[in-house]
Amino acid sequence: MGAKEKRNLTLVPDYKLWFERDGEYIFGPGAYAILKSVHEEGTITEGAKKLGMSYRYAWGVIKKIERKLSITLVETFKGGTEGGGGARVTESGLKLMELYYSINNAFNDVLESSDKLTL
Amino acid sequence: MGAKEKRNLTLVPDYKLWFERDGEYIFGPGAYAILKSVHEEGTITEGAKKLGMSYRYAWGVIKKIERKLSITLVETFKGGTEGGGGARVTESGLKLMELYYSINNAFNDVLESSDKLTL
């Protein structure tokens, strides 16, 4: 194997960030993407669709976190001028997204400014 | 759920960092810990033992990465003054450890300097 060690070998770094409480997994990239999408689209149906997920799956992810933390992340409402109702990410939900985005962003900065992973 | 949203809720961030090549997982925290332990202890047996792993498991992890990258990470040798031989992490192995440590360290700095995750 000696000779092979001379060639250039470049690796690519990747990571997963998540939030825990009392050692229990609470919130990660999947839930972040769902909240963000619901926030941008204004309904759970459209938010889920944009990510290629079913309404049921996306709603399940949100509900699971809400149960674990006993908070509301997304409020749904009926009516409005279009009559279809919609979903609104709560203040707690927006705060959670902001905290996640901020650390994720700083991690990306680390990777962008780090040396090439060449052996 | 409204009233419950008022209480303080603090989450703890955690992450996993890994290196890939061509989209394939190559090197993560487990392998880093093994290389570090072998490097510090000087033998695979002692390095594995310190981590509560079997020799076979630790060696398997190292060999798998070596096969994927076609490089040598750990060289074993016989003899020496104690007669028992030992293991030496190669230059490529040390470089890999160094690259991983450096990013991991920067990630930890991000987490230490970030705001408390309070909703």
Describe the structure.
Two copies of one chain form a homodimer. Chain A is an alpha+beta fold. Chain A has a domain at 27-108: Orthogonal Bundle (Arc Repressor Mutant, subunit A). The first copy, chain A, contains four helices and five strands; from the N terminus they run ββαααββαβ. Chain A has helices at 29-41, 44-50, 55-69, 91-113; strands at residues 10-21, 24-27, 74-77, 86-89, 117-118. Chain A has a three-stranded antiparallel β-sheet with strand order 2-1-5. Chain A has a two-stranded antiparallel ribbon with strand order 3-4. In chain A, a hairpin with a 2-residue loop joins strand 1 (10-21) and strand 2. In chain A, helix 1 (29-41) packs across helix 4 and helix 2 (44-50) crosses helix 3. The first copy, chain A, is elongated and about 60 Å long. The A-B interface holds A 1-2, 4-5, 9-21, 26-27, 66, 69-72, 90, 92, 95-96, 99, 102-103, 106-107, 110-111, 114-115, 117, 119 and B 1-2, 4-5, 9-21, 26-27, 66, 69-72, 90-92, 95-96, 99, 102-103, 106-107, 110-111, 114-115, 117, 119. Strand 1 (10-21) of chain A pairs antiparallel with strand 1 (10-21) of chain B, so a sheet runs across the interface.
